[in-house]
């Protein structure tokens, strides 16, 4: 069973990373795979009751890979951490099958530590369902659920559930409906989308900025016209006064 799981993990890297040419290369050169192997071992010891030893092995893995995966987390088949440095996976995290994370992703908890005893055994970290892709720098915080085949854009901060097949972008993250659900379900590196799926709030802000810019240009045009009209009126008045003086004859 253990070796079968390793083979599935190797195949997952080869299928999702075009730079991974052989299983041998992945096994020896990919730090995400190394971190996953440290996790598989530490998790097996953790569930058998070896809490300290499990944590100790996971800390060794963090030291060598720069990736921190708590041995209490539950991770399914075909899990890929691409590049991986800075990834943090909390204790009560649940990750389904065929999930992909990129570097600097945090799957963290937001519960306060004032009563840590009461929090033991409670769900504090997110659940990532099957087929989820999380872009680099994203932060998924709290006991929320990210649905099947959902996407989390780079640097997004997610604090609420994401429905299946949706994409979350922005800070705080907002759910964007993909235009083409079939294309959106395909694997795309860094959770990019063929349609772009820009942040709707940023779109609104950019639209307002464009309108304000147009209004400012129009105000400047009106001010220029007003100055020109005033100058022409002043010149006309001066010319009239000069003409009147010329017509006025001096007294004999």
Number of helices: 7
The total beta strand count reads 15
Low-confidence stretches: none
Strand order of the largest sheet: 3-6-9-12-14-15
Q: Based on the structure given, which CATH architecture of the largest domain is correct?
A: 3 Solenoid
Please identify which CATH superfamily of the largest domain we are dealing with: Hexapeptide repeat proteins
Helix content: 40-55%
Q: How large, in whole angstroms, is the Cα Rg? A: 31 Å
Q: Could you give a short account of the major beta sheet?
A: 6 strands, mixed
Number of domains: 2
Average pLDDT, to the nearest integer? 82
CATH C-level label of the largest domain: Mainly Beta
The coarse silhouette is elongated
The CATH topology of the largest domain is given as UDP N-Acetylglucosamine Acyltransferase, domain 1
SSE diagram, text form:
Elements: H1 2-16, H2 23-29, H3 31-47, H4 51-65, E1 68-69, E2 74-75, E3 80-82, E4 88-89, E5 94-95, E6 100-102, E7 106-108, H5 116-119, E8 127-128, E9 133-134, E10 139-141, E11 145-146, E12 151-152, E13 157-158, E14 167-169, E15 174-176, H6 181-184, H7 200-247
Parallel strand pairs: 1-4, 2-5, 3-6, 4-7, 5-8, 6-9, 7-10, 8-11, 9-12, 10-13, 12-14
Antiparallel strand pairs: 14-15
Helix pairs in contact: 3-4
């Amino acid at each position: 069973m253990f070796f079968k799981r390793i083979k599935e993990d190797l195949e997952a890297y080869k299928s999702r990373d075009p730079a991974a040419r052989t299983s041998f290369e992945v096994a020896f050169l990919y730090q995400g795979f190394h971190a996953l192997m440290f996790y598989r071992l530490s998790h097996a010891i953790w569930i058998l009751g070896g809490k300290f030893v499990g944590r100790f092995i996971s800390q060794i893995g963090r030291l060598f890979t720069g990736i921190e995966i708590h041995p209490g987390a539950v991770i399914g088949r075909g899990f890929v951490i691409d590049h991986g440095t800075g990834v943090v996976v909390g204790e009560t995290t649940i990750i389904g099958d065929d999930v992909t994370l990129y570097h600097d992703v945090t799957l963290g908890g937001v519960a306060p530590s004032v009563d840590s005893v009461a929090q033991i055994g409670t769900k504090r970290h997110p659940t990532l369902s099957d087929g989820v892709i999380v872009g680099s720098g994203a932060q998924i915080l709290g006991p929320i659920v990210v649905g099947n085949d959902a996407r989390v854009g780079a640097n997004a901060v997610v604090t609420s559930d994401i429905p299946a097949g949706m994409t979350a972008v922005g800070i705080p993250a907002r759910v964007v409906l993909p235009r083409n659900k079939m294309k959106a379900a395909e694997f795309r590196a860094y959770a990019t989308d063929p349609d772009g799926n820009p942040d709707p709030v940023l779109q609104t802000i950019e639209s307002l900025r464009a309108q304000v810019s147009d209004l400012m240009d129009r105000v400047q045009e009106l001010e220029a016209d007003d100055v020109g009209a005033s100058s022409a009126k002043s010149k006309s008045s001066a010319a009239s006064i000069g003409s009147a003086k010329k017509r006025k004859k001096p007294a004999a």
